[in-house]
Amino acid sequence: MDVIKVKKLLYNLNNNSKWRLKFMLHSAMTSLKEICRGLPLYPLPENRGRRKGIPHAPVRTPNLTAQEKKLALRNALRYFPPEIQKKLAPEFAEELRLYGHIYMYRFFPDIEMRAYPIGDYPCKTKSAAAIMLMIMNNLDPSVAQFPQELVTYGGNGQVFSNWAQFWLVMHYLSEMTEEQTLVMYSGHPLGLFPSHKYAPRLIITNGMVIPNYSTRDEYEKMFALGVTMYGQMTAGSYCYIGPQGIVHGTVLTVLNAGRRYLKAEDLSGKVFVTSGLGGMSGAQAKAAVIAGCVGIIAEVDEAALLKRHKQGWLMEISNNLDHCIARLRDARKNKIALSLGYHGNVVDLWERLVHELDTTGELLVDLGSDQTSCHNPFSGGYYPVQLGFEEAKQLLSTNPGKFRTLVQESLKRQVAAINRLADKGMFFWDYGNAFLLEAQRAGADVEKKGANKTEFRYPSYVQHIMGDIFSLGFGPFRWVCTSGDPQDLATTDSIAMSVLEDSIRQGVSTSVKQQYHDNIRWIREAGRHSLVVGSQARILYSDQRGRVSIAVAINRAISEGRIKAPVVLSRDHHDVSGTDSPYRETSNIYDGSAFCADMAVQNFVGDAFRGATWVALHNGGGVGWGEVINGGFGLVLDGSTEAEERAKMMLSWDVSNGVARRCWSGNDYAYETICQAMKENATLKVTLPHKVVDENILEQALKR
After folding, report:
1. Residues 152-185: tens digit of each pLDDT
2. N or C: less crowded end of the chain, CB within 10 Å?
3. 458 contacts 428 by C-beta, under 8 angstroms
């Protein structure tokens, strides 16, 4: 359309339509080149503040002193020259007062935020362009939970702390050469530093706070000051691929829970009750259907329900518990796969299921879990049953102490209902969101007598379901096709299935074969269920052998022209080696080292010098701030021989590090897995543990 005609048309449109058309025109004219020019200062962009009609992060309550407020403002203004600071200071102060943080809404870019094809980015290197693509995907409104607050998922998983950082990072990446590395301190771009072509192009650390000061209260202050950031896992490392990742993990978890608890391969007619349909938890609805069961998922935020329903991930929505119970009974009886979103508080749902048990004698639920953001329970991650959603949000901002009390009372009620149902045969597990940890702190009845402090009345899904899978070397391996072409993704799917099928034919153990079969099934189902949200990405669980073989095959397909552009390899931090988390990823390590973080830190360092394009190390993620250290990577495959060698070396380390650690802790699966890896690679030499065969010698020695 001619620009003059567009401007004439604007004159006659109502305000809302004007804004939309201006947005389209501005995006088309400025595109990515303007984003890469650095902070737009002359002139300043219009300050539109918080946009209406999109979800926003809860108001934060950092409780800053007067001096700390000045410091927060001073820290924010240092991104801008003195002649602009006077104009920006009042609005930044207002953001701090209203929202508890300075997001710099004025600098929210007027561009369609999404993963553009890699060739569209005005960069000097493909690696930098790939990183830009991944950043913009994390902030895509169809992917991000609170896009204007730069939150990708989990309620507080930040990509950056403010929008000035976004503009600066995009500028640095556009200027970067193969002889430079961009250094990121908790969202802040420290700068481009000279390095060499074999070094990572990007090094990220998030939340690296001195341990004695890594508390929630201190975090709220430091985040408000703009000096640290909670990157969750793949939010702050720029590797999130939308809820597809957690869909896959949840499918595997539910399938393996059925095998372990229900002794069932077929889950039709089995009922799975849980909560949360947000950034990560939104995957549960789709996962339930793929697994073949009846999924009832509670969610207090109507916007989240509608988003998942619009995406086709949630089949039905109801705010009526009578209707929910009727639909549950029908689907259960007729063995219909169903995902039903209950618009209400999960405590009400659990208590209604107890009521049905008491009045009819019928246990209507087989499997249960929870995916509220309990790692962040007092800042909007969990909403108490005593209040409606809007009323609770208001109380959170006006009386956080009272909100905390209600949350803890609500957790106790939730656990009481779960306990009643579990006593009658329902199997419940903690999904690694710190639900049982926070319930224990609230005084709920979750104690497991005689257990160590990482164990509760109910297991974490790692302890009973996924832990042995990690010990086999399996974890969430993923890739992104940077062409943006769905055909490239289909080609990689075909390659991955062929690799796994070939491995089965060549001979693998029974336990490994089952995991390969589950993942071949997953890839087929993923194609049928339209799981792509944002970038053209895929995830599967694979071991060292599978990851390396898939990477090599994809790289060669790029070289041969069967895939049109580079592919970014990555994984969730929630993996074999990537995370030290005593209440989740390392909760099945019983040698006393579950609270040690050597594995995650060593993984970050080892990936960096073995070929990763970028690496990240985070405090927090999943179970919360101060509870976990985790890291991740990105590796760009461009079809070159060098990329193949990097993939072989880095991916092998990225798995074997964690398997070796799990082996040393006493896990039999890990022992077998690392011994097999040593047979296949003569340069791998791992210290193996000797078991204490006679336990009596311990007692006898200690009696002396």
Report:
1. 988 889 999 999 999 999 999 999 999 999 999 9
2. C
3. yes
